[in-house]
């Protein structure tokens, strides 16, 4: 698994707390640095690459030529013979006929993740998105017409107006998409949205209404042939996101670019969250980064947190021996109240349990 982080955006979304850079400056030095980091760290990937994910930020702000430069380095430095899935995150306004044709011509990308967020212009203005609803619809249709048979879109629930949310879901069912990531709007510290809410310029729905929107999502998915496999992720049969699914089962991966994270099984590493410092450090032959060695307890807690967010749940055989009995005792009360279902091989969150997954995990931490 390889993750490539492209931090650039045209503008900052009101809800976003991720590292990103709002800039119109030349991006070529950053692309050159990413290519050099891939070469510097090629020995950290010992097996054939199965998935690559270009995330951000907005990776579709790069030209097809710049993306092709990174693709060339991937083929040069890594065994790409068994690649299954290569995803590009994109904003609707970037997916022109010309860009899509050039992207398809690179021969590696086979999946698009389009940041729609809403099909209602009022929502999009509140979120400070650049596209409008019609651009989002046309972007999906153009992507499919250009030969991309695996298209995912992102939507946000927990926005004002339950009727808008139901209308959003109806629009998804009318479009040729294979995957939906639906995220609850959360109020992150330091974001534009946090300030707007504090100043009472924006009123968010109650927790109860957000739960109702989530339950409507589950009902819609079941009625429209979308399988839920993680709290926020739904797909048509056979279109589960391979790359992202491996994050939840703690598969090692290499992350390159400013603020990108890597994981080797027991150690997490993250590059400096500053594009200019990142470029400068790569030029010296040493990527500025921090790291953390996970102890046995840390690894156990992390596994609980990620596994309980999936429909599959906790695989009993993956629980380290020192914690088996502790887990069985701790989770029994959640089984008793119907939040967890026990099978011979797993502890699985029920539909209601998924709503409380993070809280259940926190109660089980050591």
Please give the structural blueprint.
Blueprint lengths: L1 E5 L1 E2 L11 E2 L5 H13 L10 E6 L7 H14 L7 E6 L6 H9 L5 E7 L3 H7 L5 H13 L5 E7 L4 H13 L4 E6 L7 H7 L8 H17 L3 E4 L2 E3 L6 H7 L5 E3 L4 E3 L3 E5 L3 H9 L5 E5 L2 H12 L6 E2 L8 H13 L3 E3 L3 E4 L1 H5 L1 H8 L2
Parallel strand pairs: 1-4, 1-11, 2-3, 4-5, 5-6, 6-7, 7-8
Antiparallel strand pairs: 8-10, 9-10, 12-13, 13-14, 15-17, 16-17
N- to C-terminal separation?
29 Å
Write out the strand line-up for the largest beta sheet, numbering strands in chain order: 9-10-8-7-6-5-4-1-11
CATH architecture of the largest domain: Alpha-Beta Barrel
Question: Tell me, what is the CATH class of the largest domain?
Answer: Alpha Beta
CATH-defined fold name of the largest domain: TIM Barrel
Principal-axes geometry comes out as globular
- Uncertain regions spanning at least 5 consecutive residues: none
Mean pLDDT: 93
Determine the CATH superfamily of the largest domain.
Aldolase class I
Number of strands: 17
